[in-house]
Amino acid sequence: MTPLAAHTRRIVMAAATAVVLTGGVAAAVFLGSDTSADGPGPALAHTSTTGKSDNKPGRPGGSAEPSGPGGDSAPDGSDGSGDSTGPAAPPGASGISETIDHATESGGKSVSITIDDGPSPVWTPKILAVLKQYDVKATFCMIGPQAKANPGIVKQVVAAGHRLCDHTVSHDEAMNKKPVAYQSSEVLDAQKMIEDAADGAKVQYFRAPGGAFTPDNRHIAAGHGMRPLGWNVDTKDWKKPGTATIVNTVKQQLKNGPIVLFHDGGGDRAQTVAALKELLPWLAQQGYTFSFPAI
User: Does the annotation mark 263 as catalytic?
Assistant: First the structure.
């Protein structure tokens, strides 16, 4: 048995077990109902590196259990994925590497703007307007049910030339501790929701919530055409620390690498919009170009 066949057999066996336990339905665990202006969707919570839960503003729920490599992010603001990264491994049958991406397509002095947890009918259009003003393309990491509830916004993102990223169904930051069948459902069900909302535009990346990557969910994503996508700079804008703090965080952490993480979902993102208005022209003035993450 080749390593690939063994891996595939493990996924099939786990899926069969899940079907038996759930009466034939692969269950996706939701963390609560969204009652914010962003529309329906799962509750979104981030866990700090101390293990103390920091719920996103406007969202109930959350777990006190540290999730994924480094919890919400490593002390330097990166996704803390460490050993999972490095030079890209040879691509699998899909042609997509399973290693977590921390590079831009263009290389050199470039950055990639990535935006998580939407789409939001309130904040995504505002962010799209800022990106258009400065002629910047970004990658939007979408929650499956949010995309399903806001297909018009998804189409706006695609029409503006931005790229799509799968950010799972439930934003479960402990998904790395769950069975393979559950991880598969979180990844693939969200991919379908996003692509359906986008009228078939392809989702090109997968970002595990809170950096909860595993060899299994990276393998599943890459096998379905999605490069695992990390980050190097975590603005922590979801905490609403103030526009100046968000801006300074980016300036201080750019030395970590080129993938910068913002949010358009999960609550009031006025500070994110204001920070982008400051940061995009500043980055250009510093000689940075804007590029998509590598695939």
Answer: yes
Predicted TM-score of the model (pTM)? 0.77
pLDDT at 81: 63
Q: What is the pLDDT of residue 95?
A: 87
Q: How far apart are CA 56 and CA 266, in angstroms?
A: 6
The predicted structure's pLDDT at residue 236:
97
The pLDDT value recorded for residue 178 is 97
Cα gap 259→230, rounded to integer Å: 7
Structure tokens at 140: 């939007």
Spans of the chain below 50 pLDDT: 1-43, 47-72, 83-90
Please tell me which residue in 162, 167, 171, 263 is annotated as part of the active site. 263
234 is catalytic: no
State the SS3 of 15-81.
HHHHHHHCCCCCCCCCCCECCCCCCCCECCEEECCCCCEEECCCCCCCCCCCCCCCCCCCCCCCCCC
DSSP H helix total and E strand total for the chain: 8, 10
**Type of residue found at 292:** F
Q: Given this model, what pLDDT does residue 264 score?
A: 98
Q: Please list, in sequence order, all residues whose beta carbon lies within 8 angstroms of the beta carbon of residue 17, skipping any fewer than 6 positions away.
A: 179, 181
Using CA atoms, how far apart are residues 27 and 29, in angstroms rounded to an integer? 6
Peptide bond just before 151 cis, omega within 30 deg: no
Active-site hit among 116, 117, 216, 234: 116
